[in-house]
Structures are given as C-alpha cells and as structure tokens.
Amino acid sequence: MKDFLIVYSSKTGNTEKVAKKFYEVAGERCDLAAVKQVPAVDDYKVIFAGYWVDKGEPDKDMQEFLQTLDNKKVVLFQTLGAEAYSEHGISSLANAGRYLSTGCKVVGTLSIRGAIDPKLIETMMKMPEGHPHAPTEESKKRWKDASTHPDEADLQAAGEYIQKFITFYDRFYK
Ligand SMILES: Cc1cc2nc3c(=O)[nH]c(=O)nc-3n(C[C@H](O)[C@H](O)[C@H](O)COP(=O)(O)O)c2cc1C
C-alpha cells in the first residue's frame, strides 16, 4: 500500500504539470493517475485531487471523482486563470470541498495559476460589451498575466508544498 495517490484532471496540461511535479517529488510513496483511469482508492492513505477551475467549480470529471470518495483524507489542488489566492481562487477551493462526502477530511489545499486556453480567449474577445466575459482592460491584463503559468517558480512551490505535506503527514497521520 502506498501513501499517496495523485489524481488529476487536465484539459490543456496545466494541472497535469503540477500533478507530475508532486509525483516527481513524492517518488516511491505515490502513484499518479488521470481522472479517467483511477485505481482502487482504498489502497492509498491520502488522495491528492487536482482539477482545472471551470466557472468557479472543479471541472466536471473531477466533480464526479470527488463524489466517489468516502472516508478519505484529501488534498485539493487546482489551477485557474485568476490569481491563485484571489477571492475567486479561494472560493473555488471551497466549492471543490462541497463535492466530498462528510466522511472525507480535507488535509491540504494548493492553488496555482494556469494559462487560459487561447481558443477560449479568442471566443471571449468576440463577446459583446456588457457580457460578463467580454474583454476589458482588466480582463485582458488578467489573461496575459496568466499566460506564462504555471511557470518554474509555481512548479518549485508545488514541489516544496508536497515536501512539507509529507513531513506533516509523517508526523501527524502515519
Ligand atoms: C471552459 C473554461 C472555464 C474556465 N473557468 C474559469 C474560471 O471560472 N475561473 C478561472 O480562474 N479560470 C477559469 N478557466 C481557466 C482554467 O481554469 C485554467 O486555464 C486552468 O489552468 C486550465 O487547466 P488545465 O490546463 O489543466 O486544463 C476556465 C477555462 C475554461 C476552458
């Protein structure tokens, strides 16, 4: 039995990069699985569940996976176009927690910025003035700022996060 299972859902690769960084750092103590190919979760002590934020919620595939968990310790991690710990980032993490049953325990969270799919930006650029996703100076700056993430510093922070988590886990949960 391994300690950790890292499950990720990723459409354009951002969340996958973070998941792979976790996997690289946690090494033999963990397995890595895409959300559509998850092994039996009972074989693991902690499930790391990573998703891309879709309208302030975990993406649909991750919503479904989170609802299958029961009595598990869970670390939620996400990538999103907004600033990682903006109000939107924090509420998106909280929203993900709502898909877990009450028997689960969230033992960690991590939010990381991720570039927005250029195809989505193209669509939003065409939206009429007044539409909530229509381009404004502010939103264009937000999309541009996101475009280089997750960068090396983000991935390093992810590596440090799981390293610290493992220390915490060995001390309090093992
Ligand atoms: C349909 C769609 C909806 C999105 N909704 C949000 C959102 O509500 N908030 C946000 O900050 N980013 C949003 N994003 C941006 C993604 O969460 C972000 O680009 C993420 O890093 C993508 O991860 P992936 O590369 O693992 O698929 C959305 C992207 C798409 C395609």
From TrEMBL:
InterPro entries: Flavodoxin/NO_synth, Flavoprotein-like_sf, Protoporphyrinogen_IX_DH. It holds the Pfam family Flavodoxin_3. It comes from the Bacteria. GO terms for biological process: heme biosynthetic process. Residues 128-148 are annotated as: Disordered. GO terms for molecular function: FMN binding; menaquinone-dependent protoporphyrinogen oxidase activity; oxidoreductase activity, acting on NAD(P)H. Residues 5-162 form the Flavodoxin-like domain. This is Flavodoxin. It comes from Phascolarctobacterium faecium.
